[in-house]
Amino acid sequence: xxxxxxxxxxxxxSPAQISQNLRHTLDRLPAQTRLCAVIKxxxxxxxxxxxxxxxxxxxxxxIGISANSEARAVRAAGxxxxxxxxxxATPEEVEDALSYNVQELIGSVGGMQAILNQLGARGLPPVxxxxxxxxxxxDGVELSTQQGRTDCGRILExxxxxxxxxxxxxxxxxxxxxxxxxxxxxxxxxxxxxxxxLRREDILTHAGSTLxxxxxxxxxxxxxxxxxxxxxxxxxxxxxxxxxxLKSRVISLGTYPKGSTVGYDRTCVLPDDRLLASxxxxxxxxxxxxxxxxxxxxxxxxxxxxxxxxxxNTLVVDVTEVPGVAIGDEVVAFGSQGGxxxxxxxxxxxxxxxxxxxxxxxxxxxxxxxKDPKDLVCGQIV
Length: 382
What we know:
Blueprint: E1 9-13, H1 15-28, E2 34-38, H2 40-44, H3 48-57, E3 62-65, H4 68-76, E4 82-85, H5 91-96, E5 102-106, H6 109-119, E6 127-130, H7 146-159, E7 163-167, H8 175-194, E8 204-207, H9 210-215, E9 223-226, E10 244-256, E11 261-262, E12 268-269, E13 274-279, E14 296-299, E15 302-307, E16 315-318, E17 330-337, E18 340-342, H10 344-351, H11 355-365, E19 368-370, E20 376-377, E21 380-381
Parallel strand pairs: 1-19, 2-3, 2-9, 3-4, 4-5, 5-6, 6-7, 7-8, 8-9
Antiparallel strand pairs: 1-10, 10-13, 10-17, 11-12, 13-16, 14-15, 14-17, 15-16, 17-18, 20-21
Helix pairs in contact: 1-3, 6-7
């Protein structure tokens, strides 16, 4: 393991845990279904360079991205398979991504026409046609209306032989709603094949997500797009573990008398004399101000309460009950230390958001430190 960076806070990333999560993900896919590994937002904050080697080692041949910078990083990491953009792109983005061989998503006549106006028919990259299928209503053709069917026909005409995939995104993964959405998507697929020259054997169908996989239902497609599960988010079992920890260090210690107030707006009053530690982490590091109420961190393997309001670069922790606490001690804001853990439930409950949001934020705000495979013991980062 590398030495911690000389920074106020950092994220520790475990490529070994990502590889383990990937293996379990591949094992859980329905039969004959391949994986599109979604690594948007710089691999949910984990760093594309830390994920692509695992994908290559386990034979994953499709990657889902959003931004051109991600496509560039994927190619720089040595990936030669298919890159799918999982949103509609501007014509300028599409043109810039041609050198990375990005396959684009189209869900409207206007979107298709704008790209053709920019590139011409001969410059059109491979295209995946997005069908709304009673779903997200954001970038898919709605085939339940006459206008939608007309638009779909026009996209198929404009796309000619460049359409290589048909896809959708399920808005809900509750059992009954997911079953309805799967059935609806299958109906929409049947309509497209019946009303176009597309041949089923030439087209890649894809849908579903981590939550779909966790729900245990088969969307009956060639490929499922999963991202969060690779990083231990919303896994379908205890074998899936987070691959990121958020850490900092104690930077000062002081004893303060009963009645002292802590932090901005004096929101915390000490009930008695307490030993307080300042930690070099705050909302600038993605540790939300909402964590000011009831948050905890780990120091020397002990749970310590966060006191008062979170500042931009500092938080205050009560370490009165931590024997031998010292300046420079490691602080774990998310993750495990000495057999204790600050886990998903605590951090999501305190911040009011989901791990995917937090990981993407933490990993792009703070330096990333990779952990050696030997630090992965019994499926858990130590």
